[in-house]
Amino acid sequence: MSVSKISICIPAYNRASVLGELLDSILIQDFDNYEIVICEDKSPERDQIGQIAADYIKRHPGRIRYIENPDNLGYDGNIRNVIEQAQGEYCFFMGNDDLMCPDALSKVAGAVNKHPDTGVVLRSYAAFDGTPDNITQTFRYFEKELFFPAGPETISTIYRRSVVIPGMVLHRESARKYATDRFDGTLLYQLYLVANILVERNAVYLPDILVLYRSGGTPDFGNAAVEIGKFIPTEQTPESSLHFMQGMLDIADYVERTRNVPIYKPIIKDIGNYSLPILSIQRGRPFFTFVKYCIGLGKMGFWKNGMFYIYFILLTFLGASGLDKLVIFIKRRLGYTPIIGSMYRGSSE
User: Fold this and answer.
1) 310: CB partners within 8 A, 6+ apart
2) Global pTM value
3) CA dihedral of 222, 187, 305, 253, whole degrees rounded to 10
C-alpha cells in the first residue's frame, strides 16, 4: 500500500524574504503526491508573505493552499491549525525559513510504506549559516535506519529529538485525534503530539539529511497572547529558557498520567544526558546569571544527572564556543551524535 498525499505544513510568521527559497526547494522534489499548506499567523509581514504565496500559487496551480489566521494563534496554535487545514495522510513540517533537501519526500514516503502503522518519522537534519553550502553542524542521531514499535521506550527516545520542527513527519489523523490547546505557549506542541501518537503507532528513524535548518535567526516568539510574559521577541532570556524546559517536563508528566505510560523518568534522564545545548544557550550571560539559571534547571530534577554537572564544568572553563567546536569535531569523526548512557534504539529490521 502506498502513502496517500503528503502535506507540507508551513506555519508562517515573518521571514518573508526567505519563504521563496523554501518553496523552491519543495517544488523540485522528485515525489509528486503532495500539497503545500501555508498558515500565516497575522505577522507584521503578512502582506509580503501573502504576495509571495499568491505568486507561487499562480505559477503552480493546485499545489499550494494559503490561509491567513484571523488572530495571532502563536507557535503551538498555528501548528495545530496547519494540521487541521492539511489534507494529506502525513504532515511534513517545515519552518518558513528552512530548506528541504532533494529526495526528502520520496525517502519519507518509502519509509512509511515500508514500516506498518507509522505515526512519526524522526529525521536527520543539518544546520547552515547564511547559504546552504555553509553547513555548520549535522544532527544524525543514529548511524542507520531504525524501526521503533509503539510504546514507552520509543516515546522516551523520540521525545527530546522532536523539539526542532523542520522535517518532522506526523500521521495527520492521529495528530488531529489529540488536538488540544492545553500546552499553548510552551512552543512544544509537537512533543505533546509525538508522545501521544507513539503510545499506539510506530516510529521510524531516517539517517539521511532531509532538511536544512537556518541557524543564527532571531527568535520571534512572545507576540501571541498565549506567549506574552513567557517569551520575549528577539531574545532568549534565562526565564524563557526555564519556561521552555519546564514545558518539556510538564508535557511528559501529563502524557504519563493520562496515557498510563512510564516515560517521565527516562525522558528527564535523556534530556540530562544531552543537556549541553540547554546550558550553553545561556553561557554568554554574566557568570552568576548563568549559575542561577543552572540552579533553576537543577531544581527541575537535572541535579540528579552526572552529565549535567560535567557540562556545567566544561562550559565554565571552555565556554560555549570552545565546547561547541569539540562536540562538532566528535560528531564529524563518528558520523552521528554519540550515544550517552542507556538508550532504546529500536531495531534495524
Assistant:
1) none
2) 0.95
3) 120
CA angle 110, 18, 37 (to 5 degrees): 50
Please write the tens of the pLDDT for every residue from 29-52.
999 999 999 999 999 999 999 999
Written as one letter, the residue type at 183 is: F
Question: Is residue 183 over pLDDT 80?
Answer: yes
pLDDT tens column, 54-78? 999 999 999 999 999 999 999 999 9
Helix (H, G, I), strand (E, B) or coil at 240: helix
d(CA 275, CA 210): 24
Instruction: Determine the number of helices (DSSP H) and then strands (DSSP E) in the chain.
Output: 12, 10
Q: Which residue type, as a one-letter code, is found at position 29? A: Q
- Amino acid letter, 103: D
64-68 and 146-148 beta bridge pairing: unpaired
Average of per-residue pLDDT across 192-217: 95
Query: Contact at 8 Å (CB) between 234 and 220?
Result: yes
CA distances from residue 25 to 34, 98, 101 in whole angstroms, order as listed: 13, 9, 7
